Amino acid sequence: MFLQGCAATIPQQAPLTIPANMLLCQEAPQVPNEPTDKDLAYYILDLSNAGADCREKLHAIKNIEEPEDGEK
After folding, report:
1. Which of 18, 20, 26, 19 is nearest to 50 (CA)?
2. Contact, 28 vs 40, CB < 8 A?
3. How far apart are CA 57 and CA 24, in angstroms?
4. Separation of alpha carbons 26 and 47, rounded Å
5. How far apart are CA 19 and CA 33, in angstroms?
6. pTM of model > 0.85
7. How far apart are CA 68 and CA 72, in angstroms?
8. pLDDT digit string, tens, across residues 16-71
9. Which stretches does DSSP call E strand in the chain?
10. How confident is the model at residue 11 (pLDDT cuts 50, 70, 90)?
């Protein structure tokens, strides 16, 4: 039986890596030229979705870096 207390090296945790797809947010939509009410409504929805995408990814990255259970 081997005892970890006698080990010459201290075990190291591998560094956490952030997946590449988490580092890019959805692009903001282009502002429509001479928009109709319908165009503006879709623009607002698309803009809101792009912001939500970025917030979700940022929250996920924060959970990777600082998990809520205290384990890293």
Report:
1. 26
2. no
3. 8
4. 9
5. 36
6. no
7. 9
8. 788 899 999 999 999 999 999 999 999 999 999 999 999 999 999 998 888 776 55
9. none
10. confident
Q: In this structure, what is the dihedral angle of CA atoms 20, 24, 54, 37, given to the nearest 10 degrees?
A: -150
**Residue 18 tokens, joined:** 């952030």
Is residue 25 within 8 Å of residue 53, measured between CB atoms? yes
- Cα separation values, 4 from 12, 16, 21, 72, Å: 13, 24, 38, 21
- Asked if 69 and 63 count as a contact pair (C-beta separation under 8 A), the reply is no
Given a contact cutoff of 8 angstroms between Cβ atoms, the answer to whether 32 and 4 are in contact is: no
Tokens of 4: 């970890």
Contact of 72 with 13, CB cutoff 8 Å: yes
